[in-house]
């Protein structure tokens, strides 16, 4: 039998990576890892925003409900004819108009006592009805606009659109609209 020559390093196939292949692999891996980390960083930044958005929504809902729960009469609720007037002409002293009557505020007596009184109301830093700051909400602001609107079967004088806007940290902004209609005995 013939003898086979022994395999030497020159004739033996090499296993492993060259330096160039290794550098290319590291570069591709680094780029992929950077892309994945960027997605995680963006998700982390965005995850704090929903809390500010939810808080702004809660403030707007609370303020809208506060306004909607107020009376909507032709006369100021302090007027003797407020409960029975079927038009502004039926008021004994003061017919309601957009905006608060002289001296009325949300916080002290005499307080807002009609939906119309909230027109133009604004606060920077959220405070409760007693003007006490609500902890953690100093970075938010809110405003209210009230406007007559005609609904399908309700004339413009008997319906109001209430728009509440709240802004907060991180350019958070929420706008809610609600409606308030006049009910008997004050419906015309």
TrEMBL record:
Pfam families in the cross-refs: N_methyl
SUPFAM superfamilies, sorted: Pili subunits
Keyword Transmembrane tagged: yes
Source species of the chain: Roseateles flavus
The name this protein goes by in its record: Type II secretion system protein
Positions of transmembrane segments: 20-41
The keyword Transmembrane is assigned to this record: yes
Entry keyword set: Membrane, Transmembrane, Transmembrane helix
InterPro entries in the cross-refs: N_methyl_site (IPR012902), Pilin-like (IPR045584)
